Every structure is written in C-alpha cells, then in structure tokens.
Amino acid sequence: MSYFPGVTSSASKVPAVERILDAATRLFAEKGFAGASTRLIAETAGLNIATVNYHVGGKRDLYLAVMERAADRERHALEEVMRASAPTAEDAHRLADRYLDFCVEHPEIAALWLRRWLSDAEDVTSLEAERVRPLVARIVDLAQHVAGPEADVEYAVWSVIWCVHGFVRGGVLDDRGARRRGDDQPALQRFRRTLHHLVDGLLDL
To answer: What are the structural domains, with CATH classification, of the chain?
Structure first.
C-alpha cells in the first residue's frame, strides 16, 4: 500500500488522502508514532476520524503509507544521479549533494527516518526490507564502481546518510550556542564542502 485513491473535499481542492498523509507526516515527524494520535491527525487535516479510517484504515496503515511515500520521494529524487552508466567520483559527490538537498527541502522526512531508526514503531517490520534496503543497495553498487580498495562501501553510505540527517535535524552549534542547519546558507555551504571531503575519505578516493 503506497498510495490511496484521492477524494477531493468540498472544503479544499487538495484531495482528502493527501491532506491526511501531509498531516500525518508532520505529526509523526514531530511526535513519533506513539505521540501522534489518529484524532490529532484528523483534526490537523481538517477531517474527522471516520473519514481518516475510511481512506487509510487504522493508525498502523497510515504510518506505513506515510513512510512508503517518504521512501518513494527519496528514491525519485535520487533517480537521475543513480542512472550514471559509468559512475565517477564526481557522481558520488552529486549523489551526496542531491540527498543533502532533498533532506534540506524535506526536513520532516529526515525526522521520520531518524525517529524510525531510533526504534519508532518497532512492530512495523517490513519497511526496511521493502523500501530502504533496495535503495541503499543501488547506491552501494554505484559507489563500488568508484571506491578505492580500502573502502567499506556499505558503511560509507550509511555514514553519509546519518551525517546528513544529523546536520539537517540537529545542526551545528555556533559560538553563541545557536543551531545552524540547512536553512542557514553559509552553514549549508560549509557542510556541503565537508560532506565532499567525508565522501572522499570514506570511499578511499
């Protein structure tokens, strides 16, 4: 179950299902699976619980739909870079850049995955096998073509993912203790340069 057929609400031109998924994405990102009730999601979407249940089923079904949509959007964002037939070190940088840009544009998706990897909704066990592993495997395969002999490519890919998520959600503390994240252009430029150096080191380029 990745998407649901949309029904346009008379109160909004946005299909009801999209409103539900958008509201659930924000709330699961902010509060986690346990903290985001179906009632709160319905209220945020401007709908009632019966409408939410009719379109997406229970809370577990809604969580799966949100996470699957997030994974699909990530994959779509990276597709163009992953099509390289003869990958180069520059492609490795482009892929890291595209992932960084995607997470900066969609910090709520980075938050969803961080919560997920910190044991959110542990009883939902199919996501990683069906959505995460195939995408990571494609990235690892691409990186294998450019990596040096000492590189542990799988761990390199995961290290970049965690590093990007940490910057987008946690940021870097400045001299005054303020957090500088992706919406701070100087901080983003510094992080991007650092990310390129990190990729070079991890892949033994």
So the answer is: 67-202 (1.10.357)
